[in-house]
Known about the structure:
Blueprint (H helix, E strand, L loop, with lengths): L7 E5 L4 H12 L3 E6 L2 H10 L5 E4 L5 H15 L4 E4 L14 H28 L3 E5 L12 H18 L2 H4 L2 E7 L5 H9 L13 H13 L4 E4 L1 H10 L3 H26 L13
Parallel strand pairs: 1-2, 1-4, 2-3, 4-5, 5-6, 6-7
Amino acid sequence: MTMSNRSVAVVTGAAGAIGTEICRRLQARGYAVLAADLDPAALDALQTRLALPLTTVAGDLTDPQTIERIRDTLETRFGRCDVLINNAGTVITDPFEQMTPATVRREVEVNQLAPMLLTHALFGLLQARHGQVISVVSLGSMLPLAESPGYAASKFGLRGFMLSLALRTPHNGVRISTVNPAGVDTPMLHHEARSGGSPLNFLGTPLQPAQVAERVIRQLSRPKIENDISASDGWLIRIAMLFPNLYAKVLPLLTALGEKGRQKFLQKIGPAASHPEHSRDP
C-alpha cells in the first residue's frame, strides 16, 4: 500500500458538467482526484480539460465490481481517502405507468443505492482520515414531482440517508454534507426540458454547474449538513411541504408558471443534437 502525501477525493459522475467543475476545483486545492464515471470516453475527454492528471475508474456504480475497483484503487495507489463526493445521478422522464420494472429499479439504484453502497465501501478509509462525504442531492429530495416520481423517491431516500448518517458524526468522525440544487443547466436538464421532465425545474433561472461545484467545495472548509441552492427556494419548499394537500391544489398554477420557464429555456438551448441526449450524470 502506498500512502499519498496529498489529500485524496473521489468524485462520481466526474465527466458530467457538475463533476468536471468539481474536479477542476479540487485539483486547484491540491487534491489528488479519483474520477469515476460510467463513460470511459468521457473520462478521457475530462482528462484533456484538466491541468493535472487524474486517476480514473470507468464503470457502472450499480455494479458491485465497480465499487470494489474504486476502493482497491484507493488502497493500492493512495492508501487513503479524505473526501467522497457522490455526484452521479439519472432521471427517467417516461410516464411512470409506461416504465418497465428495470427502469424503475435503475433510477433508484443509481440515485440512492449506489451512493449508499459506495459510502459504505469507503467508510473505513474515510474514518481513518476523519474524512467527509458530500452528496449532490436535489431540491427534488423535498418536493414531490408528478413527472419524475422515481427521481423524487430516490432523492428523498438519499437525503434521508445523508441526514441520518450526519447524526453519527460524533461517533465516527466522518463529516456529512448535502448540496441540494434547483435545476442546473446541464445535458440532463436539457433532456428533461425536451422530453417531459418536471416544469418545476424552470420556475427560476437554471443554475450553472460552477455554482453547484462552488457550494460543494465550500463544504471542505465550512461544512454544513444541508445546503440548498437557492436558500429561498429551499425554505419555500419546506413551508409548502407542511401542507401537502394544499400543495396538490396549487400545483397546476406552479406547473403553468414552470411551463413558461421551460419554453424560454428551450429557446435558449435550441434544438436537440442529432444524437440522443443522455439523462445520466448531472
